[in-house]
Amino acid sequence: MEKHIILIADDVEINRKMLSFIFEEQYQILEAADGVETIELVQEYHDTLSLIFLDLMMPNKSGLDVLEYMSQKGHMSKIPVIMITGEATAESEVRAYEYGVSDIIYKPFEPKVVMRRAQNIIELFQNRIDIEKKLEKRTRQLRESRDKLERNNEFLVNALSSVVEFRSLESGEHIQRVKYFTRILLKYVKEEFPEYELTDESVKMIVNASALHDLGKIAIPDSILLKPGRLTDEEFEEMKNHTIYGCELLENFKQEENEFYNYCYDICRYHHERYNGKGYPDQLKGEEIPIWAQVVSIVDVYDALVSKRVYKEAYAVEEAVNMIKNGECGEFSPKIIQCFEMAKSEFFQATETKFSFVEEICN
User: Fold this and answer.
1) DSSP per-residue string spanning 153-202
2) How do the pLDDT tens digits run along the chain, 363 residues long?
3) Helix or strand or coil: residue 6?
4) Packing angle of the helix pair 173-192, 291-306 (nearest 10 deg)
5) Beta strand pairing status for 28-32 and 49-55?
6) Interhelix angle for 242-253 vs 233-240, to 10°?
7) Counting Cβ atoms within 10 Å, is residue 130 exposed (0-12), middle (13-18) or buried (19+)?
8) CATH number, domain 168-362
């Protein structure tokens, strides 16, 4: 709504008339003879006020009382106020400026000077408000563009990872289960271990990156990937190379190195590393393994245990959890095990309900 009103608040009528005469050709003028009436007019017209001339000393409520009210209501950042006074003290001036008045004019005043100072202040405020609106609009546009890009990236990540699932003869739900369990586990890691400096934004990126943990299986021959029986030592060595193949694929697709790419790379390469250094491909130990790779590692193991695969039947949930805790699937960080224990009931619920959450995640 266009601002086109000036409010003149002064208990001396002649002062109101003088100011009204200066601005009446350009603005609609409202007048108030005391502080209470001033507040009432501000309440009614605050959206259309271009400027307030406010006397310091008025009956009922003073100019400072009016400023306090306007400050509490958040009007001072939107409506410029010029204090007019003939009796200001250093203390009252300081308080007026602390409330946010734009200027102080002393009585008696020169009309032409008042007009110029008022116009300058009105233009300054309007320009600032226009800039803020443009900035807000641009920020909103950038946020919408970012959200759209994130949705597109997530779609591409899910599509690419689904190719791996399709080749592995999986249902395609493994990706969504890993993302779901990763989100749950990261919630507890973020709460319990702030030293990892996880944020809502980084958690979101890690969850999306987890979908690419087995990307390198695209390069594994069908004779190994789909073999229903136990792999030979030579075949298992080739299967282990999927961690390296996945990173090579990511390197080929890389446009620039950013946080999301780093999460994808680390998870691809290190999700089979183990805390005691007996994992692969680099035999990293302890906290050498990025925390996001540790999280996806235990999540991937859990889902592999409780899911039917071409080479095995599904384990019962309790048995799978005990196998992980007992180190039968490799050693995990005590911190990760602690968070796994805390998330166990949510893992159980999702597993026992046949992962009915998948559709919810995808949407």
Assistant:
1) HHHHHHHHHHHHHHHTT--SHHHHHHHHHHHHHHHHHHHH-GGG---HHH
2) 456 899 999 998 998 998 999 898 888 999 999 999 999 999 999 989 999 999 988 999 999 999 999 999 999 988 999 998 877 678 888 999 999 999 998 888 788 888 898 999 999 988 888 898 898 889 888 888 877 767 766 666 766 766 676 665 554 578 888 999 999 999 999 999 999 999 999 999 999 999 889 989 888 998 888 888 888 999 999 999 999 999 998 888 776 678 888 999 999 999 999 999 999 999 999 999 999 999 999 999 999 898 876 666 778 888 888 899 989 999 999 999 999 999 988 888 877 765 444 444 333
3) strand
4) 130
5) unpaired
6) 30
7) exposed
8) 1.10.3210.10
Residue 317, phi then psi, degrees to nearest 5: -60, -50
Report the distance separating Cα 292 and Cα 183, nearest Å. 11
> Domain 5-137 belongs to what topology?
Rossmann fold (3.40.50)
Specify whether the CB–CB gap between 307 and 174 falls below 8 A.
Answer: yes
| Domain edges within the chain | 5-137, 168-362
What span, in angstroms and rounded, lies between the C-alpha atoms of 191 and 189?
Answer: 5
- Written as six digits, the tokens of 235 are 């075949």
Six-digit token string for 128: 């600032």
Q: Report how far residue 303's alpha carbon sits from residue 264's, in angstroms, rounded to the nearest whole number.
A: 19
